[in-house]
Amino acid sequence: MAIKKKSSKHSSNSNGNRGRNGPSRSSPDRTDLRTYSIPDTRLEHPDLTVRQVIEKDKDGAEHIRYEVTGNLNAPVPPIRDSKYLDKKQCIEIYRYMLLNRKMETALENLYKQGKVVGGVYFGLGQEACSCASAYALDKDDWFAPMIRNQGSLLVRGFRASDTMMQYMAKADSPTRGRDGTSHFGDIEKRNMVSPISMLGDLIPVMAGVALGARLQGRNLAVMTYIGDGGQSTGVTYEGINFAAVQNLGLVLFVESNLWAYSTPSEIQYRCKDLAERAIGYGIPGVIVDGTDACQVYDAAHEAVERAHRGEGPTMIEAKMMRMKGHAIHDAAAYVPKPMFDFWKKRDPIARFENYLVKEKKWLTAKENAELIAEVERVIEAEREIAVNSPMPTPESAEGGVFCEDGCHEIKPKYGMPKVKKGTGGFKETEAAVHLK
Description:
This protein is α/β, with parallel strands linked by helices and 436 residues long. It has twelve helices and nine strands. The protein has a single domain, classed as 3-Layer(aba) Sandwich (Rossmann fold), CATH 3.40.50.
């Protein structure tokens, strides 16, 4: 995490430095020295460069393509042992990753069969990031996934059929057929905020969730994600800055997956690592290998614990590659094939399987085959549920448009907000009087 040098100055901080459920405690030393380090836990630092090449065809028309250079034959690094996970937990995360991969394969097949309404978004190559990060949250913590974090939904208790029915706009889907993508949540049981299509907007929303919980006497972790492209949006900056200033427990995963739709990272931003931007906000930042579930979990666990202690936000940059196009309609022909080949060798599931079976010997080859077969049976059963769910009736479209009486109760979840009572009465400003 980010390390500050000591300073002789001391200043108080009233922004939530209290135990998770206890009273306010004395604030830690705050300094004015702006010297940080960004820890990098990776065992490999790929030295690849993507550059744009403009070529002319025989008619003189210009065409753009991309080339990748660097050590494309570098050996695949081992998985780093976790400081916190035990054998059982590692196998559970591995199973969630398998569920994530098999579910998306089933979704792709449903799309090709014409049973999906609209498009499908995949997180191929990002399963370790989605599953291991969500696994680090406590039950009371909140999260807000993005379109590629479908594995985090499985970890937090959603079924694969929920996601399949959602994409198929079925009557039994979480939105009862009113949406064909991932715009659904569960604020009652699973503490999930629905994804927002405008990239970056989830960050201030989740900061608001953390602020609301703190006003009710709780220091919670709130986790959300942003891609390397979305990280450049203005609302991302505003949301992180607000969380930093208010010392809120935001755990932000920057999924540095190398391509923002068809734009490579090299022509998106100038800094070497997106985690460096944490320095500008005055918050800890760390870089992890996004294909290593143990590294992802450890960074998430430490960030969540910081949030529980009331020590503010953390930015985690998970480096990996999105192994499919932006959505199912995008063949990703713009990506140089050698780049796909390089990252395919670093498949997070294949790496974790090798770690559990061959390195740690926590699973025998037979046990692993049985686990994979069990996951396939689960996904097939979930697919059957989704396919057999009816389409919504036309008249059902009238419901749920507005929040009718009795729709749901809006009330504090953890207790009455703790606010200071004012000492003075309301006084109209000069501007208010003038406007009258």
